[in-house]
Amino acid sequence: MILGRISAYLNALKDKNNLTQRQLADMTGIPVGTLPRYFGALDDDAANFEVVSKLVVAMHGSLDELAGIPLRQAEHDESAYKAVVAGLEARLDEKNDRIRHRAELLDDEQQRSERETRRANRATLIACIIGAPPYESPAKRESS
């Protein structure tokens, strides 16, 4: 029965660390009324991974050890974990590079758009100047 193994492991950690259930409840935030189920194997359905992991971590235990994973397997898993992390970091770097490239393209597009707007404004200004009647001084208007 797995819960028997869980409760045996938790009891061994509790004894090793010389902790009371009250202290564990305070450390983990798990209600003190819930703890006897894990330390006494009273309820098979009560074995919640979150609760077990909080207790194991609080008592400086190992979930690998609880699960019966040999140390060599845990070391292998750590190297596999590191490889996965390295792969994910490489993918993040690639995504960051693509995001930077897209930002540069957007900046270039914005600058191009601003240049086109300035050109259009100048062209409009020139058209207004060219299309406007020629400037006549007030003295010339009086003589005509």
C-alpha geometry = elongated
Q: How many DSSP helices?
A: 7
The overall pLDDT average reads 81
Structural class by SSE content: mainly alpha
Query: How is the main sheet built?
Result: none
- Separation, N- and C-terminal Cα atoms: 116 Å
Q: Any low-confidence stretches, pLDDT <50, length ≥5? A: none
Rg over CA atoms, rounded to whole Å, is 37 Å
Q: What fraction, in percent, of the residue positions are helical? A: over 70%
Strand content: under 5%
The topology string of helices and strands comes to HHHHHHH
Number of strands: 0
Structure, explained:
By secondary structure, the chain is mostly helical. Helix content is 77%, strand content 0%. It has 7 helices and no strands. It has helices spanning 2-16, 21-28, 35-40, 49-58, 63-67, 71-131, 138-143. The chain starts with a helix and ends with a helix.
